[in-house]
Each structure stands twice: as C-alpha cells, then as structure tokens.
Amino acid sequence: MISQRDAFFKRVYELAKENRNIIVISADMGTSALEPFKRDLPGQFIDAGIAEQNAINVAAGLAIEGKKVFVFAIAPFITMRCYEQIRTSICMMNLPVTIVGVGAGVSYDEAGPTHWAVEDLSVMRCLPNMVVLNASQSLDAAMFAEFSSEAQFPVYVRFDRKILPEPELRHKRPDESLTANPEEADLLIITTGNMFQRAVEVAEELKAGVIEIFEFPIVKPTIVDEIEGKKQIVTLEEHTLPGGLGSAVLEVLSDNNIQIPVKRIGMDISKGYCYQYGREAIQKHYGLDKDSIIKAIKGRINHEKPDEPAHAKWL
After folding, report:
1. Which residues of the chain have pLDDT under 70?
2. Does residue 84 contact residue 123 with C-beta atoms inside 8 Å?
3. Which of 15, 30, 55, 312 is 20 to 30 A off residue 4, Cα-Cα?
4. Is residue 170 part of a domain?
5. pLDDT score of 171
6. Together in a domain, 213 and 300
7. Is 122 helix (H, G, I), strand (E, B) or coil?
8. Does 122 share its domain with 219?
9. What's the pLDDT at 313?
10. What is the C-alpha separation between 32 and 97, in angstroms, rounded?
11. Does 98 share its domain with 209?
C-alpha cells in the first residue's frame, strides 16, 4: 500500500519518460515521489518554491506552448491561495493543466484549519471547463494520472494525505460510479473521497446501498441510473456542506426533476473551525464518526428536526 500521491506520481513519471512534453511543477513540496523526476528528468521538473500563484502562471505559459503540465502543492494552497490565477490563466483559456492537491479534507489534521481542504471542492467545481477528481484509494491515483495526461481541459485532482484502506470494490474509469449492494436497498448513501470506507461501514449496519462519486461535474447516469426505486438518499463527505457533494447531488436531482428526500452529512459551517488534534476527534466534532452518522440517518428517517445553527437566535 502506498499513498495516493505516490501512486499518482509514479504513473506520471512513467508517462513522462515516454512523453517529453510532460512537465511537473512543485511548489516547494519535498517528497520522495518527485525524486525520480529530479534525478532522471531534470528538464521536465520545476521547483517554483513557496509561490503557488507563480506556479500556476508558469504552468499556463508552458501549456500554451504545447506542454502537458502537472502543478503540485498542498490542496488549500494550490487552489484557494491562487484561485484568481486558476480562473483567469487556466480556465478562461481552457488549458490542459492538471492541478494536484494533497491533503483533502482534514488529512493534515495536526496542522490545523489553515491546512485543511474542506472548501476546495465547492470553489473548484464551479469553474467553467474544470473537472475535479476526488480519490478514495491509491488505485484511483494511477487511473487519474492516465485520465489527466490525456485531458484537453483543466483538471483538479485532490488526494488524501493518509494511506487509506483499500476497498475490495473496483471501478474502471472516472465516469463510472463505484457501487456496493445498491439494488436491494431503500436507503442509498452517496459519498466521495475518504468517506467511502465509512459509508460502507454504515451501510452494512443499516442495510443500505453505497455509490461513490469521484468526478465533478457529476455525470448524469452515475446517479440517475442508480437511484431508481430508492426512498431515501444520504450524502456523506468530509467537506463543508455548502457547494460540496451534497449540493452537487441535489443539483442533479433538481435538474432531472427527481424528487427523493436527501439528507446531507458533512461539515456544518455553523460549528465553525475546529482546533482539536487528530482526525478522529475532528470528525466526531462535525458528526462524521460512525455512531453520529447512523444517529443522523435514523433521525432523518424518523423525521426528527435538526438542531438550529448557533446564529439562528440573531435572525
């Protein structure tokens, strides 16, 4: 088992040896995954230093000249710190640049909220021409490397920092969903990223089905074909609720005039930022531990009213 990041750049390195137009730009990321580029392909590797905005602009310039560029840094820094450069220099010109962010969700748990990527899915998926790929396992990473190396449009790949358990289920392409026993269940859990394994655990107890979404915008058949006959849908993500997976699912349902009750489970922004140490503690704070998720789902099924946000008394 290797990290998603290492699996991704291992495959990019193999592709780069065959294609001299592949360039990797690192924003001061000292990782062993990049050592083969420095050693064997120095002409195809650039260390831009702690200057993510400049790295994006350099990537755009190289892409205009026909290069296939991968830009790599910690997820919140390579997205939100240089959002204007991504929007203007890459998306407006629809350049085939792949932005690679490590640290999805709260996987940089000990570093605090400054290093969390819990709003990036919202802001990146709303950009025209941008495709977002969200990995749940290292197997995804090699597949994403193949996909993004051939893409003729901007791609944002978000990886978990941790080595996550590898589910037994497998999939073939980013436009196909990963499912677990959805056909006989009334309740369907739709999830993304590191929450897939948690969704499977919850589904086993509640006798629910599971769909993993790992491409945004969501491909219509991924949901529409799988939810037929379902009575309840739950979305589960280690991301803030506004604009995240739950919002994306509701958009697809609304656009296709599908009326099924949906319960979104994620990071409620009314709880603010959490400064506890450890991923398990942070997840518990936001109700993303197994027991809290099961309680929330059962409460929805039993029509219990959710708690009001902390600021409601001021409205």
Report:
1. 165-184, 301-315
2. no
3. 55
4. no
5. 45
6. yes
7. helix
8. no
9. 44
10. 22
11. no
Can you give the CATH number for the domain in which 226 is found?
A: 3.40.50.920
**Coil/strand/helix, residue 93:** coil
The CA distance from 112 to 273, in Å, is 9
What does the alpha-carbon distance between residue 155 and residue 120 come to, in Å, rounded to a whole number? 13
Q: Are 245 and 253 within 8 A, CB to CB?
A: no
Reference 112, options 265, 239, 238, 279; nearest CA is: 279
Which of 226, 215, 229, 207 lies closest to 294 in space, CA to CA? 207
Task: Quote the tokens at residue 93.
Answer: 């010109």
How many Cα neighbours within 13 Å face the side chain of 236? 32
3-state secondary structure of 302: coil
> What is the predicted pLDDT for the residue at 140?
87
**Both tokens assigned to 278:** 């450890």
Please state the pTM of the whole predicted model: 0.91
The confidence score (pLDDT) of residue 185 equals 75
- Cβ(52)–Cβ(77) below 8 Å: yes
Query: Hey, what are 268's tokens?
Result: 């409620």
User: What are the angstrom distances between the C-alpha of 206 and each of 15, 151, 291, 295?
Assistant: 43, 39, 12, 11
Collapsing DSSP to helix, strand or coil, 14 comes out as helix
